[in-house]
Automatic annotation (TrEMBL), chain A:
Pfam entry (one): Sigma70_r4_2
Name by which UniProt lists this protein: Sigma-70 family RNA polymerase sigma factor
Domain of life: Bacteria
Alphabetized GO MF terms: DNA binding; sigma factor activity
Taxonomy of the source species: Bacteria, Pseudomonadati, Bacteroidota, Saprospiria, Saprospirales
Residues annotated as domain RNA polymerase sigma factor 70 region 4 type: 120-172
Automatic annotation (TrEMBL), chain B:
One Pfam family cited in the UniProt record for this chain: FecR
Domain FecR protein: start-end pairs: 123-215
Keywords from the UniProt entry: Membrane, Transmembrane, Transmembrane helix
Domain of life: Bacteria
Name of this protein: FecR domain-containing protein
Organism: Membranihabitans marinus
Length: 183, 329
């Protein structure tokens, strides 16, 4: 019925070696993972390499895969880890800056009343938030992960997810109201 | 509602009757929430919080095409099951349309239509704050940033001369192998079907390769073969390569195509220089402390007023425009 149960079923079949189950999981989440990875690294080739490796790994190591409640959170989590590892190797640095990850482009936003300026302004406001806030905004409102999945994926508490999102949204509103006052 | 239980944000954001109330639907459950909102101040606070979270950001979600997903899936299955060689024939069939296009090209070239324009020059130019997308006669797509020019002689549209900043998405010509050449004041770029960004402002030329393969022909010096993700910066004035490495965040370099000027950990002083370049304005800063403040984020690159309002709001800058000069206090 719901996605989580469908995923659970696919997961069990995958562990039994069913390639169709891998295909189902792949097709359900590939585009969303791709988008997330691109927003993190800006490097399509790197994103596609990581995704291919990850799905191959999942199939090859299917017998050693554990039980997972949220398949999507598992995928995003292991994909994120792979991306960061590759970035660290590429740049020969332990620290990978995410300052310019998850930048919002105006054309990624819905134009209310076809107001082009409003989109540009909202994009600028979101881009003024911290990278962590932007990442959560993408995960929640673009990739459509539930707060519980995000918590699982990033190994943070459910409360922390809610609080970070809430603070970000309040800040956006405060900025928007301030702008309206000026106009 | 017989007994009122205390409510929590986490319960509300997953309660579909609550979502109905947020959307402004008018059914009994939504009305119950409405009643609660107006009569119980302690609930109201929690409901306001949950409402903000539920409303979210109005994203216009776009993902890569199903075809691309399918192509990537083929790679996975091929790797999983390397024994099967069937895929090779499929790939061959896909190039059928290219053969058709080649035939059409030969037929059209034979009609002599191009002769009319033969030696005249075609020039595209963008003003400050303007961006322009152009499809060249060979099908190549270019996006021109503000204050840039692109020119070519009509009988040879695959050799272009540019200034400013331009993003190229070049059509391959596998049937003739004919290269595409971009000339800047500093160097020539030889192309065989690919996507790349060229910025030849500020007395140097910066090239970022997104996809495919290109070769830089640095006048009277050397040739550099670039791979996807490579970034090269060369100045003929200084007669040296300023930078040659993997681009750290290619999308930062090309974000101008989407109307965004990314401020990537830059000081207010350097941000103002970028704004001068982008909007052709003077800038003036009074306070040296403010000049050193660091900015991270993206502002519009094609609307000065929105850009200034964003800077003012996000970074709390005392910034305003007066007689074509951007003043920061």
């Amino acid at each position: 019925m719901d996605n989580i149960n469908v995923d659970q079923e696919s997961w069990i079949l995958l562990k039994q070696g069913d390639q169709k189950a891998l295909s189902r999981i792949y097709h359900r989440y590939y585009a969303s993972l791709h988008q997330y990875g691109y927003k993190l690294t800006g490097d399509t080739a790197l994103v596609e390499d990581c995704l291919q490796e990850m799905f191959l790994y999942m199939y090859e190591k299917r017998q050693t895969l554990g039980d997972v409640t949220y398949i999507r959170a598992y995928l995003f989590r292991s994909f994120r880890r792979r991306l960061l590892k590759k970035l660290r190797n590429q740049r020969r640095s332990v620290y990978v800056s995410m300052d310019d990850s998850w930048m919002v482009m105006p054309n990624e936003l819905e134009a209310l009343d076809h107001d082009e300026n409003q989109r540009k302004m909202l994009a600028a406001l979101i881009n003024g938030l911290s990278p962590r806030q932007r990442e959560l905004i993408y995960l929640r409102y673009y990739n459509d992960l539930s707060p519980r999945e995000i918590a699982e994926m990033l190994s943070i508490s459910y409360r922390a997810v809610i609080n970070t999102l809430y603070k970000a949204m309040v800040k956006l509103r405060a900025h928007r109201d301030k702008l309206e006052d000026i106009e | 509602m017989a007994k009122r239980k205390s409510i929590k944000v986490e319960d509300l954001i997953e309660d579909h009757t609550f979502l109905q109330w947020v959307k402004g639907e008018n059914n009994p459950q939504a009305q119950e929430w409405e009643y609660r909102y107006h009569n119980f101040p302690s609930d109201r606070k929690v409901m306001d919080q949950a409402k903000i979270l539920v409303e979210g950001i109005p994203f216009n979600r776009r993902f890569i095409s199903d075809q691309k997903v399918e192509r990537a899936w083929e790679d996975v299955t091929n790797a999983l099951d390397a024994a099967s060689k069937e895929q090779a024939t499929k790939t061959f069939l896909k190039s059928d349309w290219k053969i058709a296009a080649a035939i059409l090209f030969i037929v059209m070239a034979g009609t002599g239509l191009y002769a009319i324009f033969q030696n005249s020059e075609k020039v595209y130019q963008t003003a400050f704050g303007e961006r322009l997308e152009v499809t060249l006669p060979d099908g190549s797509q270019v996006t021109m940033n503000t204050n840039s020019t692109l020119r070519y002689v009509r009988n040879n549209p695959r050799r272009v001369v540019m200034t400013g900043e331009i993003y190229f998405d070049i059509e391959k010509k596998p049937e003739t192998g004919e290269p595409f050449i971009v000339q800047t004041p500093d160097l020539d770029i030889q192309v065989l079907g690919t996507e790349f960004n060229v910025n030849s402002r500020l007395k140097k030329t910066e090239v970022l390769l997104d996809e495919g393969s290109i070769e830089l022909d640095i006048k009277e010096k050397e040739r550099i073969r670039m791979a996807p993700g490579d970034f090269v910066s060369y100045s003929s004035l200084e007669n040296r390569i300023l930078e040659q490495q993997k681009a750290k965040k290619p999308e930062v370099i090309t974000s101008w195509k989407d109307g965004v000027l990314l401020l990537d950990s830059v000081s207010v002083a350097s941000a103002l220089l970028l704004l001068e370049e982008t909007y052709n304005i003077e800038t003036h800063i009074e306070n040296s402390e403010v000049a050193e403040k660091m900015l991270i984020g993206g502002v519009p690159n094609d609307n000065l007023e929105t850009c200034v309002a964003a800077l003012r709001t996000i970074y709390n800058l005392d910034i305003h425009i007066k007689n074509d000069t951007l003043m920061v206090r």
